[in-house]
Amino acid sequence: MTDMPTGILNPAAIDDVTMADDGVVEVHVRQTAPWDGSDHLLLLTQEKLYNYLAYVADGDLARDHPQAAAKWRVVLEAWDEPDPRTAGLLRQASEQFRRLGGTMLTRRMPAAR
Length: 113
Fold this sequence. Notes:
Helix content is 35%, strand content 20%.
């Protein structure tokens, strides 16, 4: 059995969906590699966020979690600050999620190295 990459290293997967204490559905993106500024990691992160946008825009989130119709947010679980190019990508993605009716925030997590 091979170990599949997780988090930002696996752009095809939705990392997790939970219900927060405030009743908002949270769709989690996990930082599983250091933000190194590489083209490779930037592309993986871009693809991951695009897939999350499609998950919401295509109605899959609402179908899988009907309570998300009321309120949802994307939560980037990160253990360090992104490099400048990744930070720019995250700002753009946040605006796209806002246009779809949700929000995006970053939640600092303990380093999982």
